[in-house]
Model the fold of this input.
Amino acid sequence: RLPRGQDPATELADLERLPEAEAEVQRLIVDLLWADPRGKTGYGPSYRVRKGCYIFGPDVTTAFLRRNQLRLMIRSHEVKVQGYEWTHSDCITVFSAPN
Done:
């Protein structure tokens, strides 16, 4: 169990062991839903959106994928004019809308 206020969960398997209410407040879940990739390395707060949202670099994407034995991150949370955008070599954002 990862207590609140500790370092964020970085492995998907950690989340499976948490009670649902605890998993919902874990930084990893928030970041998976709301964080945006950026060109620079590292991980930190986004300067463009409300407090609590983060941005991450290609090094973070690669480390997350390796740690979780994945090869590609596919996300759909931002509008992309061409319908998709490769932000990192292993991270693509695909535009998706309900209508």
In short: The helical segments are 12-16, 20-23, 27-34, 58-67. Confidence is low (pLDDT under 50) at residues 1-5. The longest helix spans residues 58-67.
